[in-house]
Design brief:
By secondary structure, this protein is of the alpha+beta class. The protein has a four-stranded mixed sheet with strand order 1-3-7-5, with helices on one face. The protein is flat and about 75 Å long. Keywords: Membrane, Nucleus, Signal, Transmembrane, Transmembrane helix.
């Protein structure tokens, strides 16, 4: 009876050990806290899934304009991405064998203060980079623009030149977004899909930055002349419509409040440190209305 129980115990222990070994070989965790580059040459002998995780950082003033990104260097777009807050969550999504995230974006921003994990499914050789921008110039410019917009909202709401510049910017930006997407990747021939994809580009600054950089570097001369011509056409349209500041006081106040609201949004979204952004907004509004 003792030998039987001993054998049963050894059998259960062996099964548990085998299960643990199999599970431990299911994926390899790579925890990254700072700028890191990992090269991957996909091997048929390797079965474990590589999962890359950013540990996150603490909330401090130096993180006000910081950006953290996963960047994938690969020859083509033949890959899929899976994201989650933990390696277990990513591996669960990976094993579902679904389509994952599209491989269109090779640069993806991750949460600054929370752990973020990513796995890449591909048969191609690739490099994974964790890029840490201590001072993201785009965030600085966005916050500075918001502060200026709030500070000068009253004067700008009465300035004809500002209205013309806004009209030209809208014309160039809208046409350029369509052009960038047509050049960077052919669209399906459905108007609904056109609209959806363009809206995604508008709200995803990483995709905008990546595609604009591609177009500008590939067609620099064309980009210059295109921007110049579209700016002139937009100016003519604004002149033909007769854009000018409102005349009555209520309309001027409405425009001023809209500019201030846009400035508030620009400051808020200029940083992932929301508490610090909110403090800047409160300080600006207090200085504006309670000098």
């Amino acid at each position: 009876m003792g030998n039987s129980e001993r054998k049963r115990g050894l059998l259960l222990f062996s099964i548990a050990a085998l299960f643990t070994q199999t599970h431990s070989l299911a994926y390899d965790e790579h925890w990254l806290a700072g700028p890191t580059t990992i090269e991957r040459d996909v091997s048929s002998a390797k079965r474990a899934v590589d999962i890359y995780c950013y540990t996150g950082t603490s909330k401090k003033l130096f993180a006000l304009w910081q950006t953290v990104q996963f960047h994938i260097k690969i020859q083509n777009d033949e890959f899929q991405q899976y994201f989650g807050s933990s390696p277990e969550e990513v591996y669960k999504e990976y094993t579902k064998d679904n389509v994952g995230r599209s491989g269109v974006q090779k640069t993806v921003s991750v949460s600054l203060f929370a752990p973020t994990c990513m796995a890449v499914k591909t048969k191609e050789r690739h490099t994974i980079e964790l890029q840490v921008l201590r001072v993201d110039i785009w965030r600085v410019l966005l916050m500075a623009s918001g502060i200026i917009l709030i500070s000068l909202s009253r004067a700008l709401s009465r300035n004809t030149l500002f209205f013309y510049l806004c009209g030209i910017f809208v014309g160039v930006f809208a046409s350029f977004m369509v052009l960038v997407y047509y050049i960077s990747k052919p669209l399906p021939r459905k108007n609904l899909i056109y609209g959806i994809l363009i809206m995604i580009m508008i709200f995803d600054h990483n995709l905008i930055q990546e595609n604009i950089h591609t177009v500008v570097m590939t067609y620099p001369t064309f980009t210059f002349w295109y921007t110049l011509v579209v700016s002139f056409v937009s100016f003519l349209v604004c002149y033909w419509i007769g854009i000018e500041p409102p005349k009555n006081k209520k309309s001027k106040n409405i425009v001023m409040w809209i500019l201030q609201a846009v400035g508030v949004l620009m400051i808020f979204f200029s940083s992932e440190y929301e508490e610090a952004s909110a403090a800047v907004i409160i300080a600006m509004l207090a200085a504006k209305y309670f000098p």
